[in-house]
Amino acid sequence: MHMLVNQIACDVTFRFDESSEAIPAHKYVLISRSCVFYHIFSNEEITDFEIHDVEIQIFKLFLRFLYTDMIDCTFDNVSSLLHLAKRYRVSNLRKRCLRFLQANITPETVCPIMERAHRFQEIALHESCLNFVKRNGEVVLKSKGIQELCHDCFNKIIMADDLNASEERVLMAALFWSESECRREEREITPADQREVLGESIKYIRFPLLDRRFFVLNVSPVGILNDVETNIILEYYICPEKGADPFSSRPRIGQDPPDPNAIKRKPVLPAIREGSSSSKRGETPKETPKKEEPKPLKVLHRQRYPTKADLLKHPVAKTGPKPKPPKQNKDGKEEEEEEVERDTLVLRFPSRDEFYGWKCPGNMDDAIAFKCNEVTTLTGFVLFSPIDPDSGHYVVRAILVDNSGKVVPTSTFGVRVNVDPEDVYYEIPFPTPVTLQPSVLYTLVVSIKGSATYQGKDGFHTVLVGDRVFTFHDTLASRNGTNRIGGQIPGLLVRL
Asked: Is 122 a domain residue?
């Protein structure tokens, strides 16, 4: 970097259209970092190189990365940096940009990030954004970011069967998006123009699912539907057996079904464990206990993350103290010792994703459902460690419910934990071990608040631990994306 800043022994100069300023650089460094620059500067006679459609300040950041491997990504520069990374085939910079975008997905930013992923043909990031939108559709469709989507990306959202949003919210988002599209195309904002820019998208709005009163008072007067289409919807309300072609009347499976036994986790999840109170509801406690600073949980083990080959040989990783050598009596014979119970890790992922992080906002739960074929003692679970080596402070809350929706006693708790980033995962023990009944489907719901962590991939459906068979299943209680295939909660701790 000293050689670049002070222009020492530079042998190539970059020039820009919009600026008279030029940037001297070194061919050797550029060639060693980019195969495109290698091809360009293989001709030693080239001493000047023109850069088009890139701001000079962005190119300076790009050069700084080539020289130092350091970059400061922001929402203002990440698109331009990703553009340069792909143009000059700098894979490390591309990964940094994608990791920044993935780690900053929120309901407000997911649509702009999704559009960037579509523009740069980053399929994995695009799918991750789309899945986030589907899970959090009701919130995302209220955001201003929806206006930044292109027609294709907007269609992928509103046509999804598993979009978790009411049809009223889908309609309002479509109207908002069409207004923005009219402005981009310099059209007047009229119902006819909005209908024209929506095009085929109008068929993906499931008008038959709208409340009848809402349709009559708020949709029909707008004029976004023609008279024939309006009559089709009104006739469907009277005679639903006729159907409402071309509009779908099938409810979206992503929308939460009305379930009288649904788990209401908010009142169940506890506050962070910072003291206790034995007073019952309605009684005045005799003395308010003094709050004590919670002790951070220790990382109970540090080990290399098992590879797929390891799992095929040893499908579970045992934790706890190493077995001591057998004691010998005076005659030199080994003394018989009682069998020691040890915690065993039931690991449900063969590998983890080293590229994309897992957001831990604390207000959206991760959950996984599971069952075992025999009576088993569940002592806790494990979570993935942080990607950022400088962070490791988390607030973790958890509950365990059975298949009837009842909370398992002693399974509700909350803790603060300090994690060593060098560990692959860290253990969260239950305050009291829980007895699992055979063939009962349990759901572990975990709320994690902290920096982004690693995530698992290619999850197992079945894990064998001796003569016990554990099976894992998806659950609607998971609101942050964890499922059987990927996400958080890589394993359970059981006592054999």
From this structure: yes
